[in-house]
Amino acid sequence: MTTERVDDATTLTDDERRTLAAIADRLIPAAHGMPSAADVVTDERLRFALNARPDLAEPLRQALRPELGPDLQARLDTLGADEPATLYALQLVIVGAYYTDAGVRDGIGYPGQVAITVRSWEYPQYLEDGLIDAVLARGPVWRDPATGTRARTDNAPNTYAERFGGTPPEGDTHGHDRA
Amino acid sequence: MASEPADVLIIGAGASGAVVALRLAEAGFKVTCLEQGEWLNRADYPGNKLDWELKARKDWATSPNIRGLASDYPIVEDDTPVSPLMYNAVGGSTIIFAGAWPRALPSDFRVRSLDGIADDWPIDYFELLPYFYRTDKQFGISGLPGDPAYPPDTEDAPMPPLPIGAAGLKVARGMTKLGWHWWPEFNSINSTNYDGRRPCVQRSTCQSGCNEGAKASTDLTHWPKAIGLGATLITGARVSRIEHNDKALATGATWIDRDGAEHFQPAKVVVLAANAIGTPRLLLLSGLGNSSGLVGKRLMMHPFANVAGLFEEPLMSWAGQFGDLIESLEFYETDEKRGFVRGARWGLAPTGGPINTALPSRAGEQAWGPDHHLHVRSHLGHGANWGLFAEDLPDEANHITLSDTVTDASGIPAPEVHYRMSDNSRRMLDFHIERAKESMDAAGAYKIEVDRLMRYSGWHLLGTARMGDDPKTSVVDRWNRSHDVKNLYVVDGSCFVTSSGVNPTSTIVAIALRAADHMVETRFEQQVPA
Question: In this structure, is residue A19 part of a structural domain?
């Protein structure tokens, strides 16, 4: 695992910081009720992104180098054409810093990869709705090597209830009653 | 420096190596395993942390070339459109695999007989069935019994199915309209408490390691038990050579530790379980087992396309097991009217978080400027992805060689991958892409996006030391034993004769367990070095 920390990664020059803010605003401007990345990608957020990805610090600086000139679109076009990995690093830093901000996540209705209890004791909707019965009713799908053709099973169940007597799949209920 | 001799030396602590280690340790063998990676602590996995999507693209990338960790070795990929993916640690690639657990189908073992191409396997589905049942229990499988895409089972999956989510239900309704097969996916992911491990919490970060320990990885499911029975697992141990004597019997392996010191591990029997890149690399490095000339050849990787549907209503599709929500085998079997032979499995997966959504898509679509926000809102949690795994037919031109110029950190030549997708596979993927688009359309998708061949999709590494009865045309026999070296076994996906069109881990470990059973049964006839 990468363990190097880059707490000084935000030590960009004023020019580099201004260029980053301008690009961030170009890529993700304030619109449709969402804030500009220029406002969200603070030093704190930048530090967070680069601590997660210290390998991006150097290509970020490359993307912000003054030699690429003041025209933002020309800079992005040049990077896209000649240094796609540098452009990707720039985009990833901005996007990574922006979408790990709590306010931005609220704005897009994304709670994060939160834990959700699997309710395996409940009867699945697809069984309730007969979707599995429709699959079973069409019979076997597999090709029988003995005949070379789609398998035929005379006594195949036509419905899930026929296969399982209407009971839900077996499993530990964690003490919950099956619905 | 030599070590205590082992009855059996296993190289690689991933899926197949762990299965063999546990079985042999249960039978009283003195087992030693050499693993170039380390033990991982699942508290360190990034899936439950804010920086998950950032780390998933580097330290937790599925490509060792992107990760570049000390446990990884480089793979020269200049001559392949598909990058091999793997993980090097205790647990191997089960640490980062999705956990989808379909079995190979009966027809997969009879491709020559049924379709007049490639080869038949020396074993068949029904012979493997008891091993599938045993490994299903070992790994802990969740699934809905009764899938008509397979012969009827006599044993059900040990746990009920995981939920298919709103996205799975949406697409399942579309499949029902079309009259096409679909089924809730079988996953090696707990849906309940099982074997001391907790149930899945639907984070969908399976490919960055499972924080819950709900997904089966052999560092959890096998190694603690094997070690408890006396097996020895040495980590940070990169094998450079399998050694042999003048009677063409393996005598053990030379390995290099992280400090560069060389060691020798003597053994009566050597088992290779290093995946279909690492295993032929070691055989070629050792100059062993290759009288057929097929070591490293017939590499198969399942060319993979992605068809994403976007839906107006929120599906919360950033959540759910990444191992697949549902699958379809509707077009799995050959229909020559389609212009190709064999087929592909479809697996419906969640779609990732906001960083994945915001960055340019797999299909190259970018959305910047004011519309960026509309793009993210319309994509995040509104998608469903069909992953299409095309059966890859064996071709000797698709092969592994040893690099003349690139070495790993231990100075061992890196493997070079030479691979082309066949015309049959291209036609197959094109056909399946069109059908998958129809499926998304039937499900009500307002927009469908296609990635016709993903570069970072070489999850399924197969075929580079194929199994067979004839030593002239195969590397190992039907019991996974080298034709040339009578105490050398290959138990990983290298032994596959054809690739099937399904995720292979379930089949790999069933074959490995069968091989281990045979080692136990024939222990007194086994030739060993003096």
Answer: yes
φ and ψ of B44, to 5 deg: -85, -10
From the list B51, B160, B371, which residue is nearest A100 (CB)? B51
pLDDT category of residue A175 using cuts at 50, 70 and 90: very low
- Mean pLDDT score of chain B, rounded to an integer? 97
Q: Using CA atoms, how far apart are residues B459 and B69, in angstroms rounded to an integer?
A: 18
Model pLDDT for residues A70-120, shown as the tens digit of each residue: 999 999 999 999 999 999 999 999 999 999 999 999 999 999 999 999 998
Q: Rounded to an integer, what distance in angstroms lies between the CA atom of residue B493 and that of residue B508?
A: 6
Portion 6-45 of A in contact with B at CB < 8 A: 26-29, 31-34
Confirm whether A104 is domain-assigned.
yes
Determine phi and psi for A136, rounding to 5 degrees: -65, -35
CATH code of B6-41+57-521, in short, is 3.50.50.60
User: A143 and A76 share a domain?
Assistant: no
Task: Specify whether A136 is located in the same domain as A77.
Answer: no
Give the closest of B113, B374, B376 to A145, CB-based.
B113
A100 and A62 both lie in a single domain: yes
Mean pLDDT to the nearest integer, B145-169: 96
The CA distance from B269 to B338, in Å, is: 47
**Are A56 and A102 part of one and the same domain?**
yes
Q: Are residues A104 and A18 in the same domain?
A: yes
Sign of CA dihedral A82, A84, A87, A89: negative
User: Does residue A3 carry a pLDDT above 80?
Assistant: no
CA angle in degrees (0–180, nearest 5) for B515-B144-B303: 60
Residues of chain A contacting residue B192, judged by C-beta atoms under 8 Å apart? 118, 120, 171-174
Q: Provide φ and ψ at B129, rounded to 5°.
A: -55, -45
Does A8 reside within a domain?
no
CB distance B50–A144 less than 8 Å? no
Q: What burial class does residue B1 get, using C-beta atoms within 10 Å of its C-beta: 0-12 exposed, 13-18 middle, 19+ buried? A: exposed
Q: What are phi and psi of B427, to 5 degrees?
A: -65, -40
Helix (H) or strand (E) holding B305: strand B304-310
Let me know if residue A6 belongs to a domain. Answer: no
Identity of the amino acid at B501: G
Is A99 within 8 Å of chain B by CB? yes
Dihedral pair phi/psi, residue B328, rounded to 5°: -135, 135
Q: Which residue, B395, B359, B57, B27, is CA-closest to A94?
A: B359
Would you state the structure tokens that stand for residue B248, as one six-digit string? 């063409």
Q: Distance between CA B477 and CA B49 in Å, rounded?
A: 46
Q: Does B136 touch chain A (CB under 8 A)?
A: no
Claim to verify: residue A103 and residue A160 sit in the same structural domain: no
Question: How distant is the Cα of B69 from the closest Cα of chain A, in angstroms?
Answer: 7
Taking the Cβ of residue B107 and every Cβ of chain A, the question of whether any pair is shorter than 8 Å is answered with yes
CB of A159 within 8 Å of a chain B CB? The answer is no
Structural element, H or E, at residue B508: helix B505-521
C-alpha B372/C-alpha B375 separation (Å) is 5
Query: Residue A98: which domain range?
Result: 14-108
- Which residue is closest to B376 within chain A, CA to CA? A108
Nearest to B422 by CA among B118, B190, B139, B167: B118
**Number of structural domains, chain A?**
2
Closest CA to B268 of B243, B291, B293: B243
Q: Do residue A20 and residue A80 come from a single domain?
A: yes
Same domain, A18 and A103: yes
Note whether ipTM > 0.85 here.
yes
Task: Give the phi and the psi of residue B397 in degrees, each rounded to 5.
Answer: -70, -20
